[in-house]
Amino acid sequence: MFSTPILLDQIRRWVEIETPTERPDQLNRLVDEVMADHAGLPVSLERIAGSDGCGDHLVVRSNWGQSEPGILVLSHLDTVHPVGFIQSRLPFRVEGNSAFGPGIYDMKAGANLAHNALRATAQAGGGPLGITHLYVSDEEIGSPTSRPLIEEFGKKAKYVLVTEPARDGGKIVTARKGIGCFEVKIHGKASHAGAKPLEGRSAVRELGHVILALEGLSDEKRGITVTVGVVSGGTKRNIIPDFAQAQVDLRVPDAEAAQDICARILGLQPKTSGVTLTITGGISRPPFEQSPGAKLLFDHAHAVAAEIGFVLEGVSTGGGSDGNFTAPYAPTLDGLGPDGLGAHTDHEQIFIDTLAPRAALLAALFQALR
Asked: Which residues pair with 180 in a beta bridge?
């Protein structure tokens, strides 16, 4: 059904337009290309202008099945690699079973496979359910401008399919941890470190207490991790520091853990008298838990994959995606892109022999889900 050379050539064209999130001009060039690739298909295209420094978003709707809840496909066109990376570090190339390029694995190949699955479905006369494919431009920075769109469409969908890359040898993602982002700010009192050390109140020392308290909330058995990832403070070696700050990452498996740990983080109190501790933030991506409906969706996809000729396995991961935003509203299946490795690195690659089977899986789901 799918020609691997044709798929790979289309993916190459998308990859060779570099699209870091912070370059809306580049992203809009790719949106132009994606729109052109839909020429002649029985679909409508809605281009939503970018905002807050992000590129445009694109909504592709099949001409069939739009009067009732259908299939929402989520893809992102932005990458983490800067413009010029394809020349200096990661040129598009094929070596054996691997094709390399910036963003090829995360996730331009998956987005392109869904496009081709939609094309195949249209050529087959459509499917039982309408298909809405949403391409967004800001997933790599947390989807700040596209989240309202994603949630709006997710609430109306019967099923959600996310074209993030496959994991760990081809597994699809059936659950993801929720993500929390917090900022710590500590104000103390400056003084001379040699002449008047006792008059000062060290914000950096208090930050040490806070770091230990925060990371002490990690719980391996419950799948909870709290990581203090960025810290700064002080101005000179010989001054008791009057300010310090930190950025904190939280990963939680479910809504109960999210509520519990968020309350503990925000409720921390300073251990140093005369120091002010302020912590702000919260959950930025809700936990993607596998609902009973999502389990049935996975079982169906597992059976479809077996008919195509490969074994489909599910995995839970700590990384977030736009599927986190839809999982509370509709059965969501993630990681439907091709297998590969090296996301966000200078050796990012896809495994070419997984392109046609993954496109076939998406097309079969488009044509079989009811």
From this structure: 250, 283
> What is residue 32's three-state secondary structure?
helix
Distance CA 71, CA 332 (A): 10
> For the segment 130-176, what is each residue's pLDDT rounded down to a tens digit?
999 999 999 999 999 999 999 999 999 999 999 999 998 999 999 99
Report whether 325 contacts 150 (CB < 8 A).
yes
Kindly report, residue by residue over 319-354, the tens digit of the pLDDT: 999 999 999 999 999 999 999 999 999 999 999 999
Q: 35: cis peptide before it, omega within 30°?
A: no
How would you label 202-214 residue by residue, b for 16+ Cβ within 10 Å and e otherwise?
A: bbbbbbebbbeeb
81 CA to centre of own chain:
15
What are the angstrom distances between the C-alpha of 170 and each of 129, 141, 300, 340?
Answer: 26, 25, 17, 8
Cα separations in angstroms, 203 against 85, 194, 230, 343: 40, 17, 15, 37
